[in-house]
């Protein structure tokens, strides 16, 4: 038996903002329906942004519940950090384990809908 990850579903009240963010960060192509935006990037499972009008972003790290987070590996942490922030991410911690000069550790962010994700060295 084989089980493969087919998609990652991300809830958001504003599907346009959230799908634009992930598209700017990962590239690929987007197919839109009224309630779902499907982001397809070579080498990734589909990233589906699902309309959730009552979505409340996780308050992690304050309340301890992340709901879900994604780790993204990069060969250039400093450039990926800038790209994430320019795409609309916000840092969840003012300082973290990342040393951008030596490409060690990881950076922790939230997407526009508040979903946490990390950038880490490949």
Automatic annotation (TrEMBL):
Domain of life according to the entry: Bacteria
Pfam family, one: Glyoxalase_6
Family annotation (InterPro entries): Glyas_Bleomycin-R_OHBP_Dase, Glyoxalase_6
Sequence ranges assigned to domain Glyoxalase-like in this UniProt record: 8-119
Cross-referenced PANTHER family: CONSERVED PROTEIN (PTHR35908:SF1), HYPOTHETICAL FUSION PROTEIN (PTHR35908)
Protein known as: Glyoxalase-like domain-containing protein
Phylogenetic classification of the source organism: Bacteria, Bacillati, Actinomycetota, Actinomycetes, Micromonosporales
